[in-house]
Every structure is written in structure tokens, then in C-alpha cells.
């Protein structure tokens, strides 16, 4: 385990491996044809990895565009000096339009009211507002229904203040590219784009692939793909694991803040859901809890790494702290921990590893949520 300078204010942190991030981007680039673009999704603070620093690394490594979820996320990138095109993956409130124009951030468009208001604001500012048109093909979340796109574009295309920079859709079942649902969405999107082009509309950059579709279906790469979770070294589905090698970017670590040897029968943490079963048990406190992304549902069910060995988390996970037990057995001797020793919640320690996927399975969720949660409060250390 590498020695890093940890945050001074708290002994728990997230480590972000810039080198792994670059390697993952290059791996996705290898799947694309020479003129196909890569849009890097950095919403939700780059899935908990730190949007500004990740965007800098990704841009230097060859990212063509960035996608975010909110106006604030886009503004933060601009104010940090990111000059690449930025797309908001939904249509924001009309009240946000002046900021979009000022910061040169492209919205997604799927209502006539927003499109025309966007155009009027752009004209007043002496510019043209670029946008991407979302087409609803089966996700039933956002977008203009695929059967209505031609009429929609005819109702807004007259405005001199707006310009379509791209059209896109989003797949609901891209982990199953052989499935009927996925193929139906592909068909609907292809027909909608063809109808627009046949009518003389310039679609700009055509894109539909999310991370799993990028990996599993080269036929739908079109002009650009949108890659999110995979950039951070996490596979979107099991069927994608054989396509390219990805390196996890995030590790989560903490230092021991207290050690004790409670008497046999003593309880640990709220509710005493764990009691010390014998005398030779060391209880170690780590300053990380459910407010940091370590879900309380993991209480008494997870492990952490210490000196390349797995040790049990015990007792209910608290808001800001949790406890682990180092227990000696005749056949398994683990050195006791000392104040300040490092333990790994997610990541590698020697030959041992605890992955975001393992934690997601224990929580009954997906790796996306695990890393997003850890990124909310913990300080980030970039390697």
C-alpha cells in the first residue's frame, strides 16, 4: 500500500489514482474509430471522484466533451478553467438560461417553451445557443417522443438564436444488447435520426451509447459515445468485463484513532449488536461512518483490510465512526493494530482487495452508488 500524505483534519480519506483514470480513458478510446468522439460523464462530482480534477486529467488525456447533470456542475467546471464543450444531460429550468449563455454550457432540450426562451436569451446576448436534442425511445425518463421529433424540430428550428449541436437517446437495457428491448430502442432512435436528416435538419453530433453499450455494441457508436462509470475503473455489468481491462480509480482508507481490549461480553456501538466473544479481541475505531458513505446496512457484515488481511467490522456503524475487531486464533495470527495504523475500506492492501462491487453486493445496490456516496464528505487525495 502506497504511503500518501493524508488530510490533516481527519483520518479518513479517498485516494484517486490519476494514472488509472488516464489508462481507463485510453482503453475506451481504443474501442472507437478515428473520428468518433468520447464524451466523459463527470456528473455527481465525477461519480464521487472529484469532477474538477478528473476533468483536467481526462481532458489532457484526450476527452472531447464533458457531460454533467446540473447547471451548477457545469458552472464549476467552467470556473475551474475547463474549456472543452460541456453538455447538461437534462433540460434545466428556464431561469437558468442566462447562466448557460454566459458560461457557454449546452443544455439538453425537449420542450418548445425552453427552446424558444433559450433562443431569445441568446439573441439578446448577441450569440447563438447550442443544444442537444433528447429523443425518448423507451427509457421513459426525458426527451421528445421518437414519433414527434420531426414536428418538434419544425416548431423551433426557425429561431435564429439556437443551433442543434447534437441529438441523443439513452438506453435502459444496454447490458443486454441482444435483447428485444435494447434493439427496439436502437430501431426507434435510428428511424428518428433518419427522419430528421431526410427532412433537411442538421442533427450535429449523433450519440446514444452509454458505458455498457460503448463496450458491447460497436454498431451504435455513431459520432460519439458517452462513458461514465467505466472511466473510474468500474464495470457497468458482468458481460462487459472481458472487453477491456479497467483499473479502479478510487480507494477509501482510514487510520485507527483508538484501540481497546474490552472484557468478554462487553458490547460495541449502539444497540450492542456485537458483544466481545473472548478476551483476546482488539477493538479498533476508525473515523468513518454512514455520513461518509459507509452504509449502516453493512453493520456486522463487512470487512476491512489491515496489513493485507481481512478483519471484521463489528457493531452498528455510526454516523462518523465504526469499529473493527482483530481476533487472534491458533491458526490465524494477525498483528494487533496501533494508533495511526492505516486500514482499507475499498482498495488494495498487498495481495488483498475489497472492491466497490463487493460492497455493492452486500448493500444490495450498484457500484455507482457506492463510489458516489464515498465522494460526498471525505477529503480526496490525488495520486
Automatic annotation (TrEMBL):
The pathway where this protein functions is: Amino-acid biosynthesis; D-alanine biosynthesis; D-alanine from L-alanine: step 1/1
* CDD domains reported in the protein's UniProt record: PLPDE_III_AR
**Which transformation does this protein catalyse, written as a reaction?**
L-alanine = D-alanine
EC number(s) reported in the record: 5.1.1.1
Protein known as: Alanine racemase
The molecular function terms of the Gene Ontology recorded here are: alanine racemase activity; pyridoxal phosphate binding
What Pfam families does its record include?
A: Ala_racemase_C, Ala_racemase_N
Residues modified to N6-(pyridoxal phosphate)lysine: 43
Active site residues per record: 43 (proton acceptor), 270 (proton acceptor)
Example GO BP = D-alanine biosynthetic process
Q: Which UniProt keywords apply?
A: Isomerase, Pyridoxal phosphate
SMART domains, alphabetically? Ala_racemase_C (SM01005)
> Which cofactor does the UniProt annotation name?
pyridoxal 5'-phosphate
Q: List ligand-binding residues for substrate.
A: 141, 319
By its UniProt entry, which NCBIfam families does this protein fall under? alr
**Record-stated family:** Belongs to the alanine racemase family.
> Which HAMAP family does the protein's record reference?
Ala_racemase
Amino acid at each position: 500500500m502506497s504511503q500518501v500524505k493524508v488530510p490533516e483534519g481527519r483520518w479518513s480519506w479517498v485516494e484517486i489514482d490519476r494514472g488509472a483514470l488516464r489508462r481507463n480513458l485510453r482503453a475506451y478510446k481504443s474501442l472507437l474509430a478515428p473520428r468518433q468522439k468520447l464524451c466523459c460523464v463527470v456528473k455527481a462530482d465525477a461519480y464521487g471522484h472529484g469532477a474538477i480534477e478528473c476533468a483536467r486529467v481526462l481532458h489532457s488525456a484526450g476527452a472531447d466533451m464533458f457531460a454533467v447533470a446540473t447547471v451548477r456542475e457545469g458552472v464549476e467546471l467552467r470556473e475551474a478553467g475547463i474549456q472543452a464543450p460541456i453538455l447538461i444531460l437534462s433540460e434545466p429550468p428556464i431561469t437558468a438560461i442566462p447562466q448557460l449563455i454566459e458560461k457557454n454550457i449546452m443544455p439538453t432540450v425537449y420542450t418548445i417553451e425552453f427552446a424558444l426562451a433559450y433562443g431569445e436569451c441568446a439573441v439578446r446576448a448577441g450569440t447563438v445557443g447550442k443544444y442537444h436534442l433528447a429523443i425518448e425511445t423507451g427509457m421513459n425518463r426525458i426527451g421528445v417522443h421518437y414519433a414527434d421529433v420531426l414536428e418538434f424540430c419544425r416548431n423551433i428550428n426557425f429561431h435564429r438564436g439556437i443551433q442543434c449541436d447534437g441529438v441523443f437517446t439513452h438506453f435502459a437495457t444496454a447490458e443486454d444488447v441482444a435483447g428485444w428491448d435494447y434493439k427496439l430502442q436502437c430501431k426507434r432512435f435510428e428511424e428518428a435520426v433518419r427522419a430528421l436528416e431526410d427532412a433537411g435538419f442538421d442533427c450535429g453530433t449523433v450519440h446514444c451509447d452509454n458505458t455498457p453499450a460503448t463496450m458491447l455494441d460497436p454498431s451504435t457508436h455513431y459520432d460519439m459515445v458517452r462513458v461514465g462509470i467505466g472511466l473510474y475503473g468500474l464495470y457497468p455489468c458482468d458481460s462487459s468485463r472481458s472487453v477491456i481491462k479497467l483499473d479502479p480509480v478510487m480507494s477509501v482508507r482510514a487510520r485507527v484513532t483508538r484501540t481497546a481490549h474490552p472484557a468478554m461480553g462487553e458490547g460495541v456501538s449502539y444497540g450492542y449488536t456485537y458483544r466481545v466473544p473472548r478476551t483476546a479481541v482488539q477493538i479498533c475505531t476508525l473515523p468513518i461512518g454512514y455520513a461518509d458513505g459507509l452504509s449502516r446496512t453493512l453493520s456486522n457484515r463487512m470487512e476491512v483490510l489491515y496489513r493485507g488481511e481481512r478483519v471484521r467490522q463489528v457493531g452498528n456503524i455510526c454516523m462518523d465512526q465504526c469499529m473493527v475487531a482483530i481476533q487472534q486464533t491458533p491458526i490465524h495470527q494477525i498483528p494487533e493494530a496501533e494508533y495511526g495504523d492505516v486500514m482499507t475500506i475499498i482498495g488494495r492492501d498487498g495481495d488483498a482487495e475489497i472492491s466497490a462491487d463487493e460492497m455493492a453486493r452486500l448493500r444490495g445496490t450498484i457500484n455507482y452508488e457506492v463510489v458516489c456516496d464515498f465522494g460526498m464528505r471525505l477529503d480526496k487525495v490525488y495520486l
